[in-house]
């Protein structure tokens, strides 16, 4: 570390690469943190974890007992063992005792991406609640047709504040916080929707994965899905850079439609809920006429029936740059998709077992080098590009449901059926290096070799 | 160095291998020591030990896991490196040792598996309390087992703390009580002392009144003048003299005696007891200022001593004082004893009758007193015992001729010749259908018939002697058969070792032929016996030699072990030799099911031949039946 600091001081190292090096160094030494402990306030399995995107300080957890709690991960409530172990307690908890609390398990709890004033919970009692964090009261709620599996808000959205919800129902609904109504109902899946995810590069693009094994891409400005990922449509590794690709024009279709085509494609019938039918044919025709080769995959039944996994899609994660999509299926496979081409990149992730009953929450590091996947009782970190297991985190005693990687602190939070939220942090905490090593000395006193004979 | 390292590498794993390959409930302490000493000086050894132990923990045998667990605990408590290696796979370890996963239960020998689980839980608690703060994994495992799976931990530390706490509380409470008592004593001290003093004064006055003059010393002087030959005689005389010195209750000093008796009772029953209590309280109490306590204690002890001396004086002043306060029935017993003693004394005194004349007075006095006591006892007999003895004599004679009956319902109305109401217990008959006769009567003869004494046939108890033939495994055959043991033939009397004792045949069927045979047999037997003696002597010698050899080996092995731990291998391999020879319990034999009598029976009954035979029988019966009744299904 000091070498890098020296190089940075000399100006031989650019600031961002300095940061990246330190970060990756720290990430590679992640292990179960002994000095940081979150006291779980839940009496059921932890289903969802998210640290807020603005401060990176408040961890929101949703659990199977219908409770959601917020923890401060920066400032511990108290210390134990002479300041050795910092205990982070809940700031508040909303459970069944709360008059507006959920009746059944909370499957998804997310922060409002703009600030920490709101958070959204989706539950098996068919409701999506929007909570005011400060008063812990429900501001808006949405009644869904079935159990809510996953909710998502776009972190890059500037012009809408829609909650995408995947439910038992085949339709994906977008709930508008501002109006308190459903703005969209996206039909296409043939089974419940386990997971939804907004694109990180385009505020209008939504990705959904269903129990039918399909991953669909939706542009919310137009009806119908525009891309169904097909596991059999493959490419090896990354696409060649754009400049090279332009020379190979026509071989792969550009998936994300550019703005002009959209403008053309827009029709008055856009909001039709049952948009997969006849009306789209006309759009298709028109697009075809204008774009020539361009096809709308949603129209063709052979494309429409494509699957990304054998079995349900239980987890989706878009990389930070929005170019790649990771999906986990109940077939215990992990797939990396090139969003641009819509192809399976054939990265072979080492054999694992994933749980099948629930959705899982994946996490990706900021530089898209590692993906953290809950694999039964462990969490594994895979190298995204090679698929090799780089780390295995053992510590939970029951199946792990969710994980969240905090890029700011390079810490991993995992929640499991054993009701624990574990913190995985770099083995050498920053403050321990900075400290005058008070804690270290204490530690050495009671944890030493003791050979009496 | 490298070589040594490699050598050592094999070492710790082979040591662990050996230590876990045993059926005992604990690790051989020498092996354990060797493991520890090897692991102590090298990190690579610890690494290797950890790997080996985890392999052992994965073995499908609870005994191996159990022994591995014991070693793990030893190393865990000692080596930091081992701990840091160990906690990484802690969940795995817990699954293997506690077996809380349904799909991964603990392996075979069930009793050892439960043992393993309880031990693992115990260790987990210990580790958590001592190192939990440094290892999150241990805390997590502990919390998971405790809070989620609701395992019950032995809770050793907390229990000890709680017990300590309880003890302290108890002590505090008793101390408080003592202090309270002490305070009341401090308040009431003057009144207590005053009361006792009053009693003392009264007794003193009484005694003064009763003893106008002191004659005791004079009488003692006179007695000393006599020369006594026999010690018994002297003793008797002294007693008699003392007896004579005691004041006797007469009609004129009866009142005084009564008062004195009362006061005596008061002193013995109340004051002395309460003083004793107070003293023990003062000894135990720890007040703020000790001066008061000490002074009071001193006073009380003085007072107690004075009271004792006073009591003695009272007792000396008159024997009636001691006797009269006793209960009456005790009285009788006492008197009988006195009588006996008296008669004994008299008889003893009668032998040296030709002694000094002066003893006569003593005897006279003694007779006097004994006469008085006998008279007393006689009167006692007259008012209670006389009648009693009459009635008892009649009863005894009746009892002697009465038959002994076993207890039963027939004894309820023995000899009663009465008719009885049928409904004597008040059964409700109002709701009964049909005619009801409220005054139905069971005639006496019917009752007698119903209550006939039942007598059960009781078999005479016959002691069936065991067969007592020597058995291969040592010991004697314990089968009890009447005539013939199925294994050892006819049952004949045998000696302690099981050799048959030749019974002398009955006199009447001795024929010359028999005699010859018997003689021949005797001769053969004698020769054999001699041979056997010889053989046994030889074998004895051989055994002795073997024993010496074994001892030598043991000593050598120990010496070798002491010099280097590397010789452990040799010693152990030697040790394995005799182990294999005898039919010893091994790890695999632990897994085998024990053969129970039920199994043996099942083996006989459920084999194919037996079941075929029964089936044949059933089929045969079936066909017979069908032929007999062809029109039935």
From TrEMBL, chain A:
PROSITE patterns per UniProt: WD_REPEATS_1, WD_REPEATS_2, WD_REPEATS_REGION
- What Pfam families has UniProt attached to this entry? WD40 (PF00400)
Q: Where are the WD repeats?
A: 39-74, 99-141, 186-221, 306-347, 393-425
**SUPFAM superfamilies listed in its UniProt record:** WD40 repeat-like
The alphabetical list of record keywords is:
DNA damage, DNA repair, Repeat, WD repeat
Q: Which InterPro entries match?
A: Rad28/ERCC8/Ckn1/ATCSA-1, WD40/YVTN_repeat-like_dom_sf, WD40_PAC1, WD40_repeat_CS, WD40_repeat_dom_sf, WD40_rpt
| Region annotation (Disordered) ranges | 247-301
Q: Which GO terms describe its cellular component?
A: Cul4A-RING E3 ubiquitin ligase complex; nucleotide-excision repair complex
Q: Which GO terms describe its biological process?
A: proteasome-mediated ubiquitin-dependent protein catabolic process; protein polyubiquitination; transcription-coupled nucleotide-excision repair
Q: Where is the composition biased (Polar residues)?
A: 247-262
Q: Does the keyword DNA repair apply?
A: yes
Superkingdom as given in the UniProt entry: Eukaryota
Q: What is this protein called?
A: Uncharacterized protein
Recall the taxonomic lineage recorded for the source organism: Eukaryota, Viridiplantae, Streptophyta, Embryophyta, Tracheophyta
TrEMBL record, chain B:
Q: Which keywords belong to this entry?
A: Chromosome, Coiled coil, DNA damage, DNA repair, Metal-binding, Zinc, Zinc-finger
Residues in coiled coil: 175-202
Q: Which Pfam families match?
A: DUF2043 (PF09740), UVSSA_N (PF20867)
Cross-referenced InterPro entries: ENTH_VHS, UVSSA, UVSSA_C, UVSSA_N_a-solenoid_rpt
The UniProt annotation puts the region (Disordered) at: 524-551, 566-594
Major location, coarse class?
nucleus
Question: Which GO molecular function entries does the Swiss-Prot or TrEMBL record give?
Answer: RNA polymerase II complex binding; zinc ion binding
Stretches of Polar residues bias are at: 566-589
Residues annotated as domain UV-stimulated scaffold protein A C-terminal: 401-502
Biased composition annotated in UniProt, kind: Basic and acidic residues = 526-551
Instruction: Tell me which Gene Ontology terms the entry assigns under biological process.
Output: response to UV; transcription-coupled nucleotide-excision repair
GO cellular component terms? chromosome
As for family, the record states: Belongs to the UVSSA family.
- Please report the name of this protein according to its UniProt entry: UV-stimulated scaffold protein A C-terminal domain-containing protein
Q: Which organism is it from?
A: Aquilegia coerulea
Higher taxonomy:
Eukaryota, Viridiplantae, Streptophyta, Embryophyta, Tracheophyta
């Amino acid at each position: 570390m000091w070498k890098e600091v020296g190089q940075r001081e000399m100006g031989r190292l650019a600031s961002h690469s300095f940061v990246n090096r330190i970060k990756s160094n720290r990430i590679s030494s992640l292990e179960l943190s002994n000095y940081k402990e979150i006291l779980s306030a839940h009496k059921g399995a932890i289903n969802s974890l998210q640290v807020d995107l603005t401060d990176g300080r408040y961890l929101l957890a949703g659990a199977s007992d219908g409770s959601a709690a917020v923890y401060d991960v920066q400032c511990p409530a108290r210390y134990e063992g002479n300041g050795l172990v910092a205990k982070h307690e809940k700031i508040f908890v909303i459970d069944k005792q709360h008059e507006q609390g959920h009746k059944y398990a909370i499957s998804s709890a997310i922060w409002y991406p703009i600030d920490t004033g709101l958070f959204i919970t989706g539950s098996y009692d068919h409701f999506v609640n929007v909570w005011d964090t400060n008063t812990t009261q429900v501001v808006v709620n949405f009644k869904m047709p079935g159990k809510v599996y996953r909710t998502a808000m776009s972190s890059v959205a500037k012009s809408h504040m829609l909650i995408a919800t995947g439910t038992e129902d085949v339709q994906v609904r977008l709930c508008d916080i501002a109006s308190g109504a459903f703005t969209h109902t996206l039909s296409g899946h043939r089974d419940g929707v386990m997971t939804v995810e907004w694109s990180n590069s385009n505020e209008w693009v939504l990705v959904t994965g269903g129990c039918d094994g399909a991953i669909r891409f939706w542009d919310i400005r137009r009806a119908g899905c525009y891309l169904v990922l097909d596991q059999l449509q493959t490419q090896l590794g990354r696409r060649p850079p754009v400049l090279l690709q332009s020379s190979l024009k026509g071989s792969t279709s550009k998936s994300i439609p550019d703005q002009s085509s959209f403008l053309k494609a827009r029709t008055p019938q856009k909001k039709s809920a049952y948009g997969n039918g006849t009306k789209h044919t006309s759009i298709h025709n028109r697009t075809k006429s204008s774009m020539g080769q361009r096809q709308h995959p949603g129209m063709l039944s052979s494309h429409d029936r494509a699957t990304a996994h054998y079995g349900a899609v239980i987890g989706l994660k878009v990389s930070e740059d929005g170019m790649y999509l990771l999906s986990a299926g109940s077939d215990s496979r992990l797939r990396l998709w090139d969003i641009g081409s819509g192809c399976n990149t054939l990265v072979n992730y080492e054999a694992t077992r994933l749980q099948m009953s629930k959705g899982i929450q994946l996490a990706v590091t900021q530089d898209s080098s590692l993906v953290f996947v809950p694999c039964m009782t462990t969490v594994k970190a895979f190298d995204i590009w090679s698929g090799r297991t780089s780390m295995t985190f053992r510590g939970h005693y029951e199946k792990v449901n969710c994980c969240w990687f905090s890029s700011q602190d390079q810490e991993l939070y995992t929640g499991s059926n054993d009701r624990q939220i574990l913190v995985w942090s770099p083995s050498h905490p920053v403050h321990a290096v900075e400290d005058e090593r008070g804690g270290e000395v204490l530690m050495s006193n009671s944890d030493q070799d003791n050979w009496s004979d | 160095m490298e070589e040594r390292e490699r050598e050592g590498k094999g070492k710790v794993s082979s040591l662990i291998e050996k230590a876990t390959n045993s059926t005992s409930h604990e690790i051989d302490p020498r092996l354990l020591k060797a493991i520890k000493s090897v692991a102590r000086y090298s990190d690579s050894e610890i690494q290797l030990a950890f790997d080996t132990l985890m392999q052992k923990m994965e073995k499908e045998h609870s005994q191996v896991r159990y022994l591995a667990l014991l070693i793990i605990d030893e190393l865990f408590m000692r080596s930091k490196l081992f701990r840091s290696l160990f906690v990484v796979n802690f969940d795995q370890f817990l699954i293997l040792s506690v077996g809380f996963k349904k799909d991964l239960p603990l392996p075979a020998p069930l009793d050892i598996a439960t043992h393993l689980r309880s031990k693992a839980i115990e260790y987990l608690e210990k580790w958590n309390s001592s190192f939990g703060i440094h290892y999150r994994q241990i805390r997590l495992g502990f919390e998971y087992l405790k809070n989620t799976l609701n395992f019950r931990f032995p809770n050793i530390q907390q229990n000890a703390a709680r017990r300590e706490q309880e003890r302290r509380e108890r002590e505090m409470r008793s101390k408080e009580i003592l202090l309270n008592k002490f305070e009341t004593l401090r308040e009431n001290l003057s009144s207590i002392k005053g009361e006792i003093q009053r009693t003392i004064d009264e007794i003193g006055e009484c005694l003064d009144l009763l003893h106008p003059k002191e004659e005791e010393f004079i009488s003692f002087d006179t007695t000393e003048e006599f020369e006594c030959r026999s010690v018994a005689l002297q003793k008797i005389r002294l007693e008699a003299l003392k007896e004579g010195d005691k004041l006797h209750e007469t009609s004129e000093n009866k009142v005084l005696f009564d008062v004195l008796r009362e006061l005596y009772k008061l002193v013995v029953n109340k004051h002395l007891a309460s003083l004793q209590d107070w003293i023990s309280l003062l000894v135990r109490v720890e007040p703020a200022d000790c001066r008061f306590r000490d002074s009071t204690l001193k006073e009380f002890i003085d007072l107690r001593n004075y009271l004792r001396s006073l009591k003695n004086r009272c007792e000396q002043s008159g024997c009636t004082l001691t006797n009269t306060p006793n209960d009456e029935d005790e009285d009788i017993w006492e008197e009988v004893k006195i009588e006996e003693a008296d008669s004994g004394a008299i008889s003893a005194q009668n032998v040296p009758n030709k002694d000094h004349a002066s003893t006569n007075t003593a005897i006279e006095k003694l007779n006097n007193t004994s006469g008085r006591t006998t008279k007393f006892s006689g009167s006692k007999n007259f008012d209670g015992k006389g009648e009693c003895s009459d009635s008892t004599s009649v009863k005894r004679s009746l009892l002697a001729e009465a038959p002994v009956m076993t207890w039963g319902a027939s004894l309820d109305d023995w000899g009663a010749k009465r008719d009885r109401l049928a409904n004597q217990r008040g059964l409700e008959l109002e709701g009964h259908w049909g005619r009801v006769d409220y005054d139905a009567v069971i005639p006496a003869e019917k009752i007698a018939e119903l209550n006939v004494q039942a007598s059960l046939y009781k078999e005479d108890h016959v002691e069936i002697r065991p067969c007592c033939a020597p058995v291969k495994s040592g010991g004697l055959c314990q089968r009890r058969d009447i005539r013939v043991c199925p294994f050892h033939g006819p049952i004949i009397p045998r000696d302690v070792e099981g050799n048959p004792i030749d019974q002398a045949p009955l006199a009447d069927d001795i024929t010359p032929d028999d005699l010859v045979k018997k003689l021949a047999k005797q001769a053969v037997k004698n020769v054999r016996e001699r041979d056997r003696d010889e053989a046994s002597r030889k074998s004895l010698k051989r055994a002795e030699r073997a024993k010496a050899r074994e001892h030598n080996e043991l000593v050598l092995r120990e010496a070798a072990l002491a010099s280097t731990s590397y010789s452990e291998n040799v010693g152990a391999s030697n040790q394995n030799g005799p182990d294999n020879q005898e039919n010893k319990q091994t790890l695999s034999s632990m897994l085998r099911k024990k053969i129970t009598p039920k199994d043996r029976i099942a083996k006989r009954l459920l084999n194919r031949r037996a079941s075929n035979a029964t089936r044949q029988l059933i089929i045969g019966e079936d066909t017979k039946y069908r032929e007999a009744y062809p029109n039935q299904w």
